[in-house]
Fold these 2 entries.
Entry 1:
Amino acid sequence: MHAFLHQLASGFASGCIYASLALALVMIYQSTHHINFAQGEMAMFSTYLAATAIQAGVPYWVTFFGVLALSLVGGAAIHRVFIRPVEKAPVLSTVAISISLLVIFNSLAGWIWGFTSRSFPSPFDGWKAGAPYLSGHELGLVLVTLAVLSVVFAFFRYTVVGLAMRAAAQNPMASQLVGIPVGATQALGWGLAAALGSVAGMMAAPLLYLDPHLMSGLLLYAFAGALLGGITNPWGAAVGGILIGIAENLAGAYLVGTELKLVFALGVILLVLLVRPAGLFGRSTVVRV
C-alpha cells in the first residue's frame, strides 16, 4: 500500500508538469486552431536561459519570474513574426513553421550550451513535508503549478483582457466587430503559453536533468493529456494532464514497465481519437453544410 501511494503521489506531481504544458497547447489551439509542435522546445530553451542566469549568481526566484516575463514577450514575438503572416495560408504552412521552430530551438540550444546533460537546481530540496510519498521538489512543483494554474484561471475569469481573449478564441469575427483586437489577443495567448511552458521546463529539469531533448517526451504526455481532457477545454486539458501523469506512473510500475510508459501515452492518444475525439470534457462541433 505504501508503494502504491508513493506511485500515486509521484504520478500526480508528474501530471502537474503535463497539465502546464497541456494548458499551453490548448491556449494556442483555441486562439489559432493550430498545434504548436515547438512548444516543448521553446520551454527547454527558456529553461536553459534560467540555468545560465542561476549559474551567473542571479537568485532562483528572480530568475524564475524573469524567465516567465521573457518567455511571455518571446512567445508573443514568435506569433507576430512567424505565425501571423501565414494565418490565412493553408494549415500545412503553420505546421511547417512550428516544426521548423522545433528544430531551430533544439539545434540552437545544443550549439550554445552543448548536448551534455546537466543538473538544474531546485529551491525545494530542503523541504521534508512531502515525505514519505513526495520528495521536496515534487511537493514544491505541485504547489507552484497549482498556484500558476489558479492565476491563469483568475486571469481568464475575472479580468477584461482575459475575457476578451476568450471571446476572440470563440468567435474572432464577432470580436472584431465589437472592437477586440484579435491579433493582439492571439499574440498574448502565444506569450502566456510560452510562459506556462517555461514553468513546466523549470519544474521538470531538476527531476530529469537538463539537455536539448528535455521536453520531447513530456510534450507527448502533455498532448495525450490535452486530448484526453479535451483540446477545446483548457481546464479539461489540465485535468487530463494530471490523469495522464497518474496513469502512466501506475502503468509503468505495475503493468507495462518504465520502458513502455511513452508507448502508453501514444496508446492513450490513439484510443481517445478513435473513441471520443472531443475528449472527456471537450465538446463536439457540428457544422451544417
Note: The chain has a mean pLDDT of 86.
Entry 2:
Amino acid sequence: MRLATFSAKADGRPRLGIVTDAGVIALSELPDAPATMIDLIAEWPDWQAAVEALTYRAPTHQLEDVILHAPVPRPGKIMGIGLNYADHVAEATIEAPKEQLWFSKQATSVNDPYGALQLPEVSSALDYEGELVFVVGRRIRHATREEAKAAIFGFCCGNDVTVRDWQFKTSQFTLGKSFDTHAPFGPWIVTSDVLDPHALGIRTLVNGEQRQASNTRYLIYDCYDQIVHLSQAMTLEPGDVIFTGTPGGIGSAMRPQRWLAAGDVVRVEIDGIGMIENVVRPE
C-alpha cells in the first residue's frame, strides 16, 4: 500500500490519502480517521483493516490534481547513517568506520518529494545522496533484530542533500546536513508488508545523467541493524525518519568535483517505491 500526505491543487489543504493506480483516495472517507501521518502510523493496528478496505473505492482525486508533500511533514527525529555502502567508503578514500556512523538532520530540512532544493547563499558545495528511507512504525527501545523488522512501517525514496564545506567545518555533520529543504523524501510511504528493503535497485540522476546506481543488498548495515543500534541509545517513535546511506557516485568524489548548480534537476529512483525529483533554486 502507498500512503501519502497530499493537498488538492484546488484547495491546498493537507490531508492523508492512499495512492492507487487509479488515483488518490482521501482517508477522510473514513469517519474520524487520523488527520496526520504520525497519528495514522501510531494508531495503525486500529486502522489498518479499514484503510485496506478503502483501496477498493474509486479515487477522490486524480494524481495530476494533487500536490504530494513529504509523507511525514514534521518527523520527531530524522537520523542518517554515513559510509554505509562499500563503494561509497572507497570513493571517500577513508577507512571504513568500525561502528555505525550516525548524524541527525533537523526537522526544518524536510522537503516535499518534488519541492525545490535551495542552493545556499553561504556555499556552492551542494551535493546529492540518493538513499532508501524508512519510517518507524512503533515505539521501540533496545530492539532485537526481529523486533526491529517489525518496527518498520514503510519505505520512501530520499535525498540526503549535503552542503559539503559545512559538513566538514567540524567533526560533527549536523549543520552540513540540515540546511532548509535538504531532506526531500517520498513520494509516498510503501508499507513494509509489500516490500523487501534489501533487494532494491537505487539510482540518482542529475539532469538525466546517471550518477549513482546500486542495490540495497549492498548496505553494510541493513535497515534492521540500524534500528537495533539506534534503539540502544534512544527511543524510536512512530513517524521517525531514517536515511539509510548512499552508494558511490556523489559529486564531491568526482575529479573535478561536480557540485549542484541552480537549475539542476536531481532525481532519485528506487525499484518498488517510485521516484522523487527536485530542481535546485537559489536561496
Note: The chain is about 15% helix and 35% strand.
